[in-house]
Structures are given as structure tokens and as C-alpha cells.
Amino acid sequence: MKKRPFNPHRILRLSVALLLGGCTLLAAAVVWHNWGDLLWPAPPPPAPAVHADTLQRGQYLVRAGNCVACHTTRGGAPLAGGRAIDTPFGAVYSSNLTPDADTGLGLWRAQDFWNALHHGRSRGGRLLAPAFPYEHTSVITREDSDAMFAWLQAQAPVRLATPEHTLRWPLGTQAALAVWRTLFFAPATWTPDPQQSAEWNRGAYLVQGLGHCAACHSPRNALGASAGVADLSGGLMPVVNWYAPNLHSERETALASTPLAEVVRLLQAGQNTQASVNGPMSEVVQHSLQHLRTEDVQAMAVYLQSRARQAAAAPPPAPAKSVSASVAERGRKVYERHCATCHGERGEGTPGIYPALAGNRAVRLNDPTNLVQTVLFGGYGPVTASQPRPFGMPPFVLELEDRDIAAVLTHLRMALQADGDKAGEVTPLQVNRIRAENDQ
């Protein structure tokens, strides 16, 4: 049998054909994943009747989702949008949720709003940037979505156009968003766990959906995707440079061993006998959690505590290495000069006013980012009903050098902690890196 001669051109044509075929199939899969339901849409449910209790429920749900925090510029009209949400890829500006016909939701229907929450798609089918946490809002039920929309439509319209996003090309294009969504997003349907109590399921629904806790308390990959709505393993929040603690870790949060009432108190009031919130979590408490019904906050606490108790125990940290005498002495002097008046000579704090630093889990986090941020820029706790005028901490960004901040934080993490709770040294390089990232 005579063999056919080797034909490199034929092999090349076959390879190109296979490559083109594969690209075509991939493109078809991306299109189907992102817009397939638009080709054969399910009939929308009938528009719900809008009663006073529907509006009240919608207002409550909007507050539970902390929508006002992102959809309001500083000093601007509530929910009129325009706030820049900075990401590692550029800024995304929040949309106007008021019923203005030209710049807001005035021409939207309940189905359009559902598509935005459930499918991450705007009116007309445009794909939304994942700075809007539609991975979490996808969990929200249709009934809750309709109630939220009804309340938003009942608000006074505000004419405020949303600025253009400044995402680096091609990341903001519809094609790039479609590929990202194909890799990392699929619409979810909320299904209660029949093995768990109604309270646990209510907490899971709020944490995974409206509360979107994993949007902060989950690590993100190089493309900005988180590990899922139920992942609460902590991570450094991009751009804002705060570390969201691992909610499964006893060392970082003590959720598993803290009395339930104390967890509820921390979420509602921003502080309890053992801890206080700061950074982005203060905003969540102030604008959202403190306004929720106690039974809902307790349901969230039950769910979070259950997850923490199911998590495998982490190995004990390696013993902290000793620091040089010069660093220890510098840290002691800075603490005495700037910190002891409020936090006590031994870090005991003042109950209800200034948090204790000795035995404080936030002080002992492996990642010292939050401590550096607090010393550099100071801040206040959330304004809540139980704490209407919270005490604050002044910023030291202009007063202390990097080596002073590193030394005093090392003093907090070592000299003020019990032997088994000592954490590692903070270096001037770490402080300088965090200071520089905030200057960008």
C-alpha cells in the first residue's frame, strides 16, 4: 500500500480548522452562559400588588443589603449612585437606584431588577461589572427582589447620571465580562438545608445573600473572583487594604467559643465585652446591621457560629521570636507617650470606651494590616443606638515614623500579651508598604 507523502500544509490547515472550531464552540458556550435565557425567557410572574407592608418589607431588605453604602456619594442624595468603587483594575461607579426616568430606575420593571440581582444583567441585557456583588444578590428570592424594587420605586427620583467606569481596557468590555462570568459566575437559587433549623437557614440566607459577607471575608484570585458565597476564610480586601478576618478561625475571631449573645451584640452595636469593629465593618454595622431585627441578627450569629464550630482546628502558631532590646525599648516608650492614657499601662483598656489591647484577638492577627491602618489613620467606631457618640482614635500618619509604628505594634503584640498569645514582630518595611499603598 502506497503511503501518502507528508503534507505540512494539510496538517496546518487541519490544525487551524480545529482551532477555529474550538474557538467557535467556546464563544458559543460563553454567549449561551451569559445570554441564553434571553433567547427563550421564562414568563415573568405577575407584578405583585404594592401594599404598605410590601414597602415596609422592601425598605428593610434594602437596608439589610446595605445598598445605601455603595449607592450614595459622600454628602449626596441617598441611593442616587455615583460612588466610585475602586478595584485593582480601575474604578466602577455605582448606579442610581432612584426612580428617575433618565438616570435611574424609572423605566425599569420588576423583571429588570430581578435580572440585575439574579443574573447580573442591566435593563436591556448589558452585563454588569462584578464590583456589584451579583454572586450574592443572585441568592435573593424573587419575592424579596420584588419588595425591594417596589420600595425603591416609591422613593423620590433624583436626576444624577452615573459616571463612566474607568476599568482598564479590555476589562470593562462586554466580551471580557462574559468570559469572566463564564469562569466564575452562575445564577444561584436559594434552597434551605432541611437538616438545619429555620433560624440557621434564615441566617445562612442573610449571610450569603443580602449581607454578602463573603464579598469581604473571602480571598480573591488574580482576576478578582472570590471563593464563593459560603466561603468565609478571610483575606486582604483589595485597594482598601483592610484584612477581613477568617470567620472560621478560633484564633482570629473566637466565634466558636463566644457566647451567642455577645456575637449578636458585636454585630448590632459594633462592640461587646471582648471585641470591637473597625474599618469597613464599622460602616456595615452603622448603615445596616444595627437596623435589623434582633431575631435576624441572631439568626446570622447562629449560622456563623455553626460554621466556625464545624471548621477544623488550626495548628497552634509557631512561638513568636524575640525582638531586639532597642526595638522593645522604642515600642515601650511610644506606647507610654501615645497609647497608655486611653488603653491603660498594661493594655487593659476602659470598658465601653477604649478597647483592651491585652488579649485582643485583632492585635494578634498574623496579618498586621488592620493595626497599621488604625495607627496611621485613626478612626471611630460605628454610631449606634447603644453608642451614639463613640470615642475615636487620632491619626498618627504625620506624627510617627515607620519604625515607631512598627515598634509600638510589636510592643502590643508581644509585651502586652500572655506568653501563649504573643504574635510576631511588625517591621518598618511592612508599615512602609501599607503607608505607600494608601498614598496611591
Which radius of gyration do the C-alpha atoms yield?
Answer: 25 Å
Q: Give the total of beta strands.
A: 6
Q: What's the N-to-C terminus distance?
A: 72 Å
**H-E string:** HHHEEHHHHHEEHHHHHHHEEHH
Could you tell me the mean pLDDT? 90
**What global shape is seen?**
globular
Strand content: under 5%
Strand order in the largest sheet = 1-2
Low-confidence parts lasting 5 or more residues at pLDDT below 50? Answer: none
The largest sheet, given as strand count, sense and whether it forms a barrel, is: 2 strands, antiparallel
Structural class: mainly alpha
What does this protein look like?
The chain has 440 residues and is mainly α. It contains 17 helices and six strands. Strand 1 and strand 2 (90-93) form a beta hairpin. The termini are far apart.
Write the layout of secondary structure elements.
Elements: H1 8-39, H2 52-64, H3 67-70, E1 84-87, E2 90-93, H4 110-119, H5 134-137, H6 142-153, H7 174-184, H8 198-210, E3 235-237, E4 242-244, H9 250-253, H10 260-269, H11 280-287, H12 294-310, H13 325-338, H14 340-343, H15 369-377, E5 379-380, E6 392-393, H16 402-414, H17 428-439
Antiparallel strand pairs: 1-2, 3-4, 5-6
Helix pairs in contact: 1-7, 2-6, 4-6, 8-12, 10-12, 13-16, 15-17, 16-17
